[in-house]
């Protein structure tokens, strides 16, 4: 099965419990009356992420999804990562991997790299 961090945003969202809350901190009357903060909990793993920096619930949900993908990439390991993905192969240039932290594929590639590293370290032990 694919790593949860490599799922599309739509598919990942179907595996999440979404909670809308009011943000805390400064912001005045609008922030106190409108539930624009978003908390996402990945149901299969229990990993969660939140966002409340925007006045838009939609923008906060997008930010929370990206944070959730990054947390999933960092916290979950796949036992058998298999061969490099098509995405990985498309980003390889010789012995280097071309990726920017701001790119939407970053969590997926990070998860794949950590999975392969984890398996290689496990084999040495």
TrEMBL record:
InterPro entries: Pep_chain_release_fac_I, Pep_chain_release_fac_I_sf, Prokaryotic/Mito_RF. Residues 15-74 form the Prokaryotic-type class I peptide chain release factors domain. GO terms for molecular function: translation release factor activity. Gene3D superfamilies: 3.30.160.20. One of its GO terms (cellular component) is chloroplast. It comes from the Eukaryota. SUPFAM superfamilies: Release factor. It holds the Pfam family RF-1. Belongs to the prokaryotic/mitochondrial release factor family. This is Prokaryotic-type class I peptide chain release factors domain-containing protein. It comes from Strombidinopsis acuminata.
